[in-house]
Design goal:
Number of strands of chain A: 2
Structural class of chain A: mainly alpha
Strand content of chain A: under 5%
Order of helices and strands of chain B: HHHHHHHHHHHH
CATH topology of the largest domain in chain A: Serine Threonine Protein Phosphatase 5, Tetratricopeptide repeat
Radius of gyration of chain A: 26 Å
Number of strands of chain B: 0
Order of helices and strands of chain A: HHHHHHHHHHHHHEE
Oligomer: heterodimer
Strand order of the largest sheet of chain A: 1-2
Helix content of chain B: over 70%
Shape of chain B: globular
Number of helices of chain B: 12
Mean pLDDT of chain B: 85
Distance between the termini of chain B: 28 Å
Structural class of chain B: mainly alpha
CATH architecture of the largest domain in chain A: Alpha Horseshoe
Distance between the termini of chain A: 65 Å
Low-confidence stretches of chain B: none
Number of domains of chain A: 2
Shape of chain A: flat
Chain lengths: ~300, ~260
Amino acid sequence: MKPSARIRLTGSVLLGVCLVISAFALRHLDQIQSRARFDEVLYFPSPSVVKRLSLGYDGLLADVYWTRAVQYFGTKHVLGSYQYPLLGPLLEITTVLDPHLTVAYEFGANYLAPKPPYGAGMPQRAIQLAQYGIRNNPNDWRLYYNLGFIYYLELKDYAKATDAFARGAKVPDAHPFLKVMAAQMAQHAGELLMAKLLWTAAYQSTTDRDIRANAASHLRALEVQEDVNNLERLVSMYRERTGHWPASFSELEAMGILQGMPVDPLGQSYKLLPEGRVEVREPDRFPFIEKGAPAGYIPPPPKFLPSRGGA
Amino acid sequence: MSVRILHIASNTFREVVRDRVLYNLIAFTLLMSGASILVGQISIGIERLVVVNLGLTAVSLFGMVIAIFIGIGLVSKEIEKRTLYTVLSRPVGRWEFIVGKFFGLAGTLVVNTVFMAVGVFAALLYVSGTFAWADAWILVALYFIVLQFLMITAIALLFSTFSSPLLAAVFAFSLFVIGSFAEDLRGFAAMAHGVSRILATGAAYLVPNFSSLNIITSVAHQQPVAGEFIASNSLYALVYTAMVLCGAVLIFECRNLK
């Protein structure tokens, strides 16, 4: 073999070996370094500074920050974290860089406002974000909806929620649900009905798979709550007529006050407890239920991205 | 355009196209447009937006890098290789040399942009499955990017006429950065008083305004671009380019080449 060929061969082998070793070394470094070291750092906390530094390429940078916000929340959520201090700043930077990125405002309403562990527990910051979105996109009805959504579900401020829905309903091509919600709220509709309307609108109006899956989970929980209320009412009716609690739903069926065996939204039959209480069989499958879970039940940490293929 | 300018432009075009660095950059830009498809898939809910933003940003940044790094060597390289003297010993005016060089590089950048644009649209078609009428605004963004290239090419050429390649690169890149802050500079001028106000206003109008030519984010959201805005930007960019080229010609005419 010629000396030059030998050098080329040796060089090629060395290059390959070094590449493999460096990849292994990097992998090892990733394993020994804490993930938090990377996640908890925001080098430029000021949105306007980041905007200036983008040199006009703010759209791409907004996409990068948006992806980072989703990954930040998702990763911490999966790890069972109850604190999301960077979620607000990340969404604010994203929306200052690209004020028309509607999905970021939507994400803020869904995950910045709710209490931990379902969200960051920052409703006021979520409201500021939604209001900033409305100022920059006054013709996007979804932003008014998001604002009303936070006021109603997180702050129980019905007057402001009504105002947000009513303003959104006036926007051209607004979803008809907004008018219904504004009207229902003005008539002081029951919380369950209102919540169903809100989550249905969230489910139908979003294009984001995670937000849609989250809305579907809430809708299932509300359906359980509605079913449990109805079934317990029927059980009480049975007791009033017979003087004792029914042992099973079949007794209600036999008396003609129930048609068919009741099943939860995921197709499993409900449990009837001795003192007329109705419960779901697997409460872990309904992360947001407020009724129908066993007494003293502690829900497991919620899983982010529960059904990425759809709800 | 005189035949001599055309000859210098076509030679410059060939010289730049033969440059391997340029080929690498084109390949890299196309690669980035392809990568945008992958980035789009991990960007929840905004796949199309990411493809447009990433594709157009890549077209703009790589074109800028090409314009600056090739533009700064257009004159100095000819002096260094002493080929300039051969050219100027013929009946070719110094101004024709500068203008020819400008059109040569500008032509190369336009051809590059066309190739890159094809890559961006192909990536967009891959992600969206179809084109919408609003996607036509991407063509306007690409046109504005070409206008930016014309301005930065003229600037790089201007610095190339009197400075070393390294300093010319630093000056051209600095003007690009300052040009991106042009609107802030005007805001600062509006707040200043007295002499500062005059100086700041003068500086604000002297530096190139690249920010108004950057509409990547708005076309990514399929927002329409007003005809008046396109016309005003075109007028501004072409007049500014002509102004800088005049400056380059004046400096080169006065330069002692002995």
